[in-house]
């Protein structure tokens, strides 16, 4: 299997990974950290997908997709922190004024897990941010040790995968997800 990571500009492929089975459903669409909470609450059903379709037409794209051949098998949300709610988040600190990018969601399709796709997504998100001039990239994964993580809440990633990708622990946070503390991990791209 050869995994290729590309910008998430193909809306139908993004829909395959983070869209609902039913078009009217109010699933996340990976918008919760991307847009203000008021707008996130106002966008209902198909309007959520339409909003994401617009993001896919923008530059930069809203993240990256992993492909096995032509099949989309993974998604990672990555954007300048200033364009996300992490810019205002009280639980996840800012450690300096560097205009970092945030990597906050990693999703691998069922049937494709345990094949290294999340590692390819992290590497692809790093390359994407670097290619858009990011001086550093941050992630906010779970610090779960060896404890099992509920797959629904594993979207934030786990600390050891970011360490494997060269990220280092930059700060503790007061954010907890699925019973596990989240840590701020950073990779300098300068």
TrEMBL record:
A molecular function (GO) term: acyltransferase activity
InterPro entries the record matches: Acyl_CoA_acyltransferase, GNAT_dom
Signal sequence residues: none
EC number(s) recorded for this UniProt protein: 2.3.-.-
Annotated PROSITE patterns: GNAT (PS51186)
Top-rank EC class of the record's enzyme: transferase
The protein, known as: GNAT family N-acetyltransferase
Source organism (scientific name): Streptomyces monticola
């Amino acid at each position: 299997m050869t995994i290729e990571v590309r910008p998430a500009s193909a809306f139908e492929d993004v829909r395959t990974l983070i869209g609902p089975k039913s078009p009217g459903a109010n699933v996340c669409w990976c918008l919760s950290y991307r847009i203000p909470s008021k707008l996130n609450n106002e966008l209902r059903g198909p309007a959520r997908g339409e909003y994401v379709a617009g993001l896919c037409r923008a530059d930069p794209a809203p993240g990256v997709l992993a492909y096995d051949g032509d099949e989309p098998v993974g998604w990672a949300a990555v954007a300048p922190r200033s364009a996300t709610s992490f810019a205002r988040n009280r639980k996840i600190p800012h450690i300096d004024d560097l205009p970092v990018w945030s990597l906050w969601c990693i999703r691998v399709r069922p049937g494709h897990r345990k094949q290294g796709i999340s590692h390819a997504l992290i590497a692809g998100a790093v390359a994407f941010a670097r290619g858009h001039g990011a001086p550093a990239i941050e992630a906010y994964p779970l610090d779960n040790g060896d404890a099992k993580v509920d797959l629904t809440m594993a979207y934030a990633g786990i600390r050891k995968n970011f360490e494997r990708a060269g990220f280092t622990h930059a700060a503790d946070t007061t954010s907890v997800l699925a019973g596990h503390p989240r840590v701020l991990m950073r990779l300098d791209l300068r």
